[in-house]
Amino acid sequence: MARIVVVGLTGGPCSGKSTALSVISEKIPAMTGWQVFTLKEAATHLMEQGMPLKEALRASKMEEVWVHQRGIIQWTCCNLNVMRESARVTGRNTLIAMDRPTRDGWVYQDPPFRDEHYAHLLRDAGYTQEDAFKECDAIIKLTTAAYGAEAYYTCANNHARDESLEEARALDDLIERAYLGWGHFRTVGNATGFQEKIGNVIREICGVVGVPQPLEIEKKYLLARMPDLDAFPVPYQKIHIEQTYLLPEEGEEEVRVRRRSFDGNSWVYYLTRKSMMTPSGVRTETERLLDWKEYYHLLRRRDPAAGTIRKFRYCFLWEGQYFELDAFNGVAEGPLMEIELTDAARSVVLPPFVPVRDEVTGRAYYSNREIALRHPDAATAR
């Protein structure tokens, strides 16, 4: 059965998204045999047609901003749905590379009430938080040139761009915050030259579509204790997670269903199959979204020997790397922190404000599966 994978590209002004889209459309078909559809940024497209969004923002005319943002969300979602259907009818594996997913609209809401206003904006446009979360299979955020490549920052190649360096940095920071906790969120910075930056985007996409095979390289750390979240020096996103292991069928090494929520009310559902992890922390993994009916149907295959894992996950960025900290209640070995890499040679810069006791990569004792077997009644964490 043909696959359709949606990758959202986002980032601050002058981050290289347009170049990345062009390279993706050229390289990915040659490397994978997949066809590629590229969805242009809705806001830029509509502003080039005359939408006065920037003027309304600068004048703080929030009612006008609301109408413009609602239109951007509707245009984005309609465009994506049309291209999904076009991909489906071809019967071919398809990558849809999307310039600025719907979630980018969160950045432009009134600062004291961003979450509330964004949720209301989605409802007004006819969509939900769950719709936005399920829009993309992965998010790749390119860092603005205003961070670390200032000499290359320019507004000349985009008529809708007029941000100063300071404004570009502020937008870049907000975009990172917007996607904390999003599934398969990756950042690509400016530590390398621009060509290598674009190459890193291509490598991240290859990891998403599975070329030559889907690889997950995990580094896992046991913490001495739960850090003081009130003193966290960087923004974080708290996610509710329930994870249930199923009895494997033929050819399955490990299979689980998971549901995730930002607020404990609206859930997104997944099915994940994994191979056995090697001592170096590499394993193959496939994952797909479920609807709620599929999720509850699959729960009938629950492994009776393993309890449902209920945990809070705290997602944050440090030094351009994306960490996930899982906190469980009643687990004697303490909280665990992970980082996923697509390059085994990449070094990990551990956040100094997280009390790491030991690296436990590859130790089966610390896998969620083993925790479920040892703690069948694991409850929601603090």
Summarize it.
By secondary structure, the chain is of the alpha+beta class. The chain has helices spanning 17-32, 42-48, 53-58, 62-90, 114-125, 129-134, 165-178, 194-209, 292-298, 368-374, and strands at residues 4-11, 35-39, 94-99, 138-142, 185-188, 215-223, 236-245, 254-261, 268-274, 282-290, 309-318, 321-327, 336-341, 356-359.
Number of domains: 2
Low-confidence stretches: 378-382
The average pLDDT is 86
> What is the approximate shape?
globular
Record the SSE blueprint.
Blueprint: E1 4-11, H1 17-32, E2 35-39, H2 42-48, H3 53-58, H4 62-90, E3 94-99, H5 114-125, H6 129-134, E4 138-142, H7 165-178, E5 185-188, H8 194-209, E6 215-223, E7 236-245, E8 254-261, E9 268-274, E10 282-290, H9 292-298, E11 309-318, E12 321-327, E13 336-341, E14 356-359, H10 368-374
Parallel strand pairs: 1-3, 1-4, 2-3, 4-5
Antiparallel strand pairs: 6-10, 6-13, 6-14, 7-8, 7-11, 8-9, 9-10, 11-12, 12-13
Helix pairs in contact: 1-8, 4-5
Task: Give a verbal description of the structure.
With 382 residues, the protein is of the alpha+beta class. It folds into two domains: 4-209, 3-Layer(aba) Sandwich (Rossmann fold), CATH 3.40.50.300; 215-374, Hypothetical Protein Pfu-838710-001, CATH 2.40.320. Helices cover 31% and strands 26% of the residues. The protein contains ten helices and 14 strands. α1 (17-32) crosses α8 (194-209) and α4 packs across α5. The longest helix has 29 residues, at 62-90.
